[in-house]
Amino acid sequence: MPDIHRLDTGLDRGEAFEFLADGVSVRAFAGETIAAALLAHGRRTLRLTAKAGAPRGYYCGMGVCWDCAMWVEGEGTVQACRTPATPGMKVSTLQGAKA
Ligand code: FES
Q: Which residue out of 59, 78, 94 has the highest number of ligand 1 atoms within 8 Å of its CB and is therefore the one to mutate?
C-alpha cells in the first residue's frame, strides 16, 4: 500500500528505510515513530482488545493510553507512538498481551 497519508512537499525528511509490520513492508524515515510510519501507510489498527478483539490505535500520541501497544521482535511490548521505527525491525499486532 502506498503512503497515502504522508505529506510529500515542503519537508526535509531523514533517510528512508523499511520495516515489517505483521509481515508487510512499511516505509519509514529516520526520526519517525512506528505509529507515525504506520499511519502514513494507511494503517489505523495497532492492537486488538483481549476479549472482543476490538481495534485500537493511535489515540493520545504521548505515552498515556497504551492504545498503540505493539510487539517488537527483540524488545517486547512497546508504545508505537513513542518508539522510533528502525530499519529491518519486525512489529506485530497485539491481541490483549499476545503477539
Ligand atoms: S497513542 Fe496513547 S500511548 Fe501511544
A: 59
Measured from the CB, is residue 70 less than 6 Å from ligand 1?
Answer: no
Instruction: Report the SS3 class of residue 89.
Output: coil
pTM of the predicted model as reported, rounded to 2 decimal places = 0.92
CATH class of 16-95: alpha beta
17 lines ligand 1 (CB under 6 A): no
From 76, 71, 64, select the one nearest 91 (Cα to Cα): 71
Tens of pLDDT, residues 23-82: 999 999 999 999 999 999 999 999 999 999 999 999 999 999 999 999 999 999 999 999
The C-alpha torsion from 33 through 89 and 51 to 58, rounded to 10°, is 10
